[in-house]
Amino acid sequence: MITQGYIKLHRKIMDSPLWQSCKPERKTILITILLKANHKEKTIILDSTREKITLLPGQFVTSRSKLAKECGKGISEQMIRSALDYFEKHDFLTKQSTSKSTNGYTLITIKNWGLYQADDRNQPSKQPRNEPSTNQAPTTNKNEKNEKNEKKDIYNKIQQEFNSTCKGLPSIKKISDAREKAIDARIKEHNLEIVLEVFKIASKSSYLNGYNKRNWKANFDWIMNPNNFLKVLEGNYNSNLKVHNPAEEKTNLEIIDGYEYESI
């Protein structure tokens, strides 16, 4: 799970009947739910079933045990169950099982997600017109620096994961500008987890690892191409790598009276 980024929380939530009626532990659970929700559309793959789910802003998939762990010490699964029922009853969220085959996973949808995000863009500025802004530039520069650092961390993670996962393919020596653009595009279209999942799929493909008539191997740039990326993700190159077995080379031989003869 990616823990980078932030949410904007409006103070008016403290005036809501839901917040005022909540016990302390339920407030902890409520804030954790807001932090877990996606801020933009993305597609995920569930580990247990390989099920692909598209999440909208304000949605996320979790389980009671996972959510209890993320809420911290003192929060039990029973508290999570009770809080989710309470929040659903008060029209704060909806919950539904992702599928019949999933093992305890629940799709959480926060109703009116945008109302819980502070958005002052449409409100007039309270700063006097003739008074220069002294904090705006430093704040902007700091945010830009943080964003660059976050992206650098992602690029480094991509390089490390590709090299360690796709050991049969040419390793990455450097993340060039072109590769940064490709990474940004694939993460925007899908998400970081999907990109790492594609590396795993490619690492298990015999064809992409050179077991083809041309002895051709895929590389990082080929995989990150949008068309190729989607084909790999959809399983078009699925074929598990096999360990070399000399016995398989004798498939055209017949054994007669203890001697091997080539079949005609």
From TrEMBL:
Q: Which organism is it from?
A: Terrisporobacter muris
Name of the protein this chain belongs to: Replication protein
Ranges where the record places region Disordered:
119-150
Composition bias, Polar residues: 124-140
Q: What is the lineage of its organism?
A: Bacteria, Bacillati, Bacillota, Clostridia, Peptostreptococcales
The source's superkingdom equals: Bacteria
